[in-house]
Design brief:
The chain is α/β, with parallel strands linked by helices. The chain is built from 31 helices and 27 strands. The chain has a 7-stranded mixed β-sheet with strand order 6-5-3-4-7-8-18, with helices on both faces. The longest helix has 31 residues.
């Protein structure tokens, strides 16, 4: 412990909490010194100590004792089954003199003295994140550890008042850096082996007064998607995220959720070869620059090598790191432990840009690596290792997971995919939950070589294929999901051949890292899952009583419900006007989730053009038919410009919703293409959309004030509703949803003379804002989905279909018949026309090139 401190005699003010035990800083120093005295005197020869770094107070004391006694700690994982093969290679290559055991050390070396010649600067050995299936280690010095810890403390502003928590494994450099930084800051630390994707972990955070939590991408995304931060954490002031790329949209989402509780998000970037952290985002960076990983930590130098062949964009180069945090070098066999500094700069292999303010943005990789769970996996090396084990494979992947295509053998067996997944997990060090395997004939190029891009696409497509096929069978009234189906899905996630149907997922090895993949795949199979499904026997998950309903997204249910309200209101069966205005809010919500969420202005414009084509084709067809058959519509309807050139008091106004929808979508897309607005939207899309909605109230009130004509359906008076829908799609907190609805209420309360109509609109948008999905009886799911999908066709053709059904008597019965005919006819027209419309929409090419997908 003294090795990390500027003043080895200093008494640490912090406390260390492990369960019910609280250890003061002074007591921790005493315990470390007592444990260090159990080790041989380093003057008689420095020893190599294998430290299995569990998240326990005893393991931390043992690790710090090794450093204090002047020996070298080779940090190993706590012995998870998936890492056994990897750990065995390291242990065999670098045999220990001593092993850390509970309460002390065991001498396992040569009785005549230390086995290895260890360089005086060598202090810690960590497994490099890129050494897939290899015993390559990173050699770190005392100065590496101190310099990086001091830089982290300075960048994050850690003080003795802070209290962290061991949210990450301590044998990873990120998790270990949390320990080092809190020691250097004199801060407190809660020692806990929970996972940030479990609610119980956050109960500990709240109860123990934790001020900062370290996250990796999958736990950060889980937290961003949950409403957990809304429950309040009075002491929490900071969330840090590293270990892989978190999409900018997710960074903004997490930052918005955190800010509502007075907490900030600090995105970081690092590599084991630079001890831990290379860059850290300053306060406010996550909100203003969500695509950046921050600036260099104090003491670290950064430059770009623009000459590398992969640097194909302006200002793009390989990120090169210098400074006291850069490792001494690698070790690939025991003799390398005698080497001193062999490396003065670190070529990260990552392609990046650095702007005038020092903000770093990672834009790609030089070599074929994927970064998962904090580990950098060499895909080429993994493919080679699996080949050596007799598997003919193509390995692809990215920061979301590994994908392995396996060529079937002549005499293949059903367990082959599971074996490949297990072998890949053991060789790469990542969990099987992030590895997808598909056994299939290899796709070939014309020159006979394997088509790697096609192989990757086929594995992606095959991942949930069997689940979806079974799901379709159930939805169409076929055979029910069986226990075998459930066990098969979960066995593939856990990479085992079989599971016990009378035991739960957790009881058979499921954990937080496999929970997300298991939930996704099992949900695709059985539909709605109970919240505690992972604690239930597998047999219960296949029972019919757990699948009597299916949850459908609220926007889908609202689309179906509102178009029914529109039809039945137009035939005077019910008095429930306002549905079209709810549909307009849903359109804004969907636009913000899909087309407007794309990274660059050009892509957003192309996506909007696709949407406009999809809306215009059926509307123009309906208008032309109406114009020819009954003079119901005119050319202004055909070109969606009736609000400008047509009448607002005759049948031509019947298609007002489509005119306004297209106009609102185009205006919002153009606004989001304006560079200052685009930059602000990248930082905080909710704030931009809610400001646009508030400003859109001006034309709404002006139009109503100066015109006696009906203006309730023209674009400039309804644009605020569309913008509110877009804002709600990005409102990650209750507070932001309420602000969005307040803007809507200001514009809607007096919008129509009929208060019931205004309340209908408010109620529909409130459901969209606060209800994520709705339980629907399984037999009705397909009906709801079809009506929602066909809602545009139902809307634009309804009046002409009404005319085809004669009124044979007064009353509601003919009205019901006409409404049902409009719904059925619209669904039929959608079923016939949608494939053709989809093909035409696809002619609008969506440019995915990164070089053109950036807002300037």
């Amino acid at each position: 412990m003294k090795l990390l401190l500027d003043d080895p005699a200093a008494i640490l003010p912090g406390s260390w909490v492990a369960g019910d035990r609280v250890v003061t800083g002074a007591e921790l120093g005493r315990l470390v010194s007592e444990r260090a005295r159990l080790l041989p005197d380093s003057l008689d020869g420095r020893c190599l100590v294998h430290v299995r770094m569990e998240r326990t107070l005893d393991a931390i004391i043992g690790y710090l004792a090794v450093l204090e006694a002047g020996h070298v700690a080779l940090v190993l994982g706590p012995g998870q089954p998936g890492q056994a093969a990897r750990t065995e290679q390291v242990v065999a290559t670098y045999p220990a003199d001593l092993d850390l055991v509970p309460g002390g050390f065991d001498w396992v070396g040569d009785p005549r003295g230390p086995r290895h010649l260890l360089h005086p600067d060598l202090t810690v050995l960590l497994s490099t994140s890129g050494s897939t299936g290899s015993p390559k280690l990173v050699r770190l010095s005392r100065e590496n550890l101190r310099a990086n810890a001091r830089g982290i403390v300075a960048a994050l502003g850690l003080t003795a008042d802070d209290r962290g928590i061991t949210s990450l494994p301590l044998h990873y450099c990120y998790g270990l850096s949390v320990l080092h930084a809190h020691l250097v800051a004199g801060a407190s630390l809660v020692i806990d082996d929970g996972s940030p994707v479990e609610p119980e972990f956050w109960s500990t955070v709240r109860e123990r007064g934790v001020t900062n939590v370290a996250l990796v991408p999958h736990s950060a995304q889980w937290l961003a998607d949950s409403a957990l931060l809304d429950s309040g954490f009075p002491d929490l002031r900071m969330l840090t995220q590293a270990g892989g790329r978190l999409p900018a949209r997710s960074v903004s989402q997490l930052a918005a959720a955190a800010s509502s509780t007075g907490c900030e998000v600090r995105v970081m970037y690092g590599q084991t070869e630079s001890t831990a952290r290379i860059t850290i985002g300053p306060p406010g960076c996550a909100e203003r620059h969500p695509d950046s990983v921050g600036r260099a930590v104090p003491g670290t130098g950064l430059r770009l090598d623009l000459s590398v062949p992969e640097a194909d964009g302006p200002g793009v180069g390989e990120l090169v790191v210098t400074g006291p945090s850069v490792m001494l070098g690698y070790a690939e066999h025991a003799d390398d432990l005698a080497l001193g500094r062999m490396q003065h700069e670190l070529r990260t292999g990552d392609l990046a840009t650095i702007d005038d303010h020092g903000f770093v943005r990672i834009v790609g990789r030089r070599r074929n690596f994927a970064k998962l769970m904090g580990l950098r996996v060499d895909l080429d090396r993994l493919e080679q290792l699996l080949g050596e084990q007799g598997h003919e494979v193509v390995v692809t992947g990215d920061d979301t997971g590994l994908r392995i295509a396996v060529n079937p053998a002549v005499h293949d067996d059903p367990g082959r995919a599971s074996r490949v997944r297990r072998d890949a997990a053991a060789a790469s060090g990542v969990g099987p939950a992030v590895i997808d395997v598909a056994v299939m004939p290899m796709p070939l190029l014309d020159n006979g070589k394997v088509d790697r891009i096609a192989a990757d696409a086929l594995v992606r497509a095959a991942t949930l294929d069997s689940c979806r096929e079974t799901r379709r069978s159930v939805d169409s009234g076929g055979e029910a999901v069986t226990v075998t189906d459930v066990a098969g899905v979960l066995a593939s996630v856990l990479a085992v051949d079989s599971l016990d149907p009378d035991r739960s997922f957790v009881e058979q090895g499921g954990d937080s890292l496999t929970h997300v993949a298991a939930t996704t795949r099992l949900g695709a199979l059985v539909g709605d899952l109970p919240s505690d499904w992972h604690h239930r026997p597998l047999r219960e998950l296949a029972a019919p009583e757990h699948r009597t309903s299916h949850r459908v997204e609220t926007n889908v249910v609202l689309r179906a419900l509102t178009v029914l309200m529109i039809c039945f209101s137009h035939t005077r069966v019910i008095d429930a006007a306002g549905g079209a205005h709810v549909l307009l809010a849903i359109a804004g919500w969907n636009a913000a989730r899909f087309g407007l969420s794309l990274e660059g202005a050009r892509q957003r414009l192309q996506a909007t053009l696709r949407s406009v084509v999809g809306v215009w084709l059926p509307t123009a067809a309906a208008a032309i038919v109406g114009m020819v058959a009954s003079d119901r519509y005119g050319w202004a309807n055909v070109f969606l410009l009736n609000w400008l050139f047509g009448g607002l008091d005759d049948t031509r106004v019947e298609l007002w919703f489509v005119d306004s929808l297209v106009a609102c979508l185009v205006v919002m897309t153009v606004l989001c293409a304006v560079p200052p607005i685009a930059r602000a939207r990248r930082a905080d899309p909710w704030r931009v959309h809610v400001v646009i909605a508030a400003l859109a109230l001006v034309p709404r009130f002006v139009a109503h004030a100066i015109s006696d004509a009906p203006v309730g359906g023209v674009p400039h008076t309804v644009f605020f509703i569309f913008a509110v829908g877009a804002a709600i799609s990005h409102a990650a907190t209750v507070q932001r949803r309420l602000v969005s609805l307040t803007v809507l209420a200001v514009g809607i309360v007096t919008y129509f003379p009929d208060p019931q109509r205004n309340l209908t609109i408010l109620a529909g948008v409130c459901l969209l804002a606060f209800v994520r999905d709705v339980p629907v009886p399984r037999r009705l799911v397909s009906t709801v989905v079809v009506i929602a999908s066909a809602s545009l066709y139902i809307y634009v053709f309804q009046f002409q279909i009404f005319q085809l059904v004669p009124r044979w008597e007064p009353g509601v019965v003919p009205g019901i018949a006409r409404s049902l005919a409009a719904v059925a006819g619209g669904c039929l027209l959608w079923w016939l026309a949608d494939p053709f419309v989809t093909r035409l929409r696809s002619l609008v090419r969506l440019d995915g090139s990164p070089s053109t997908a950036r807002d300037r």
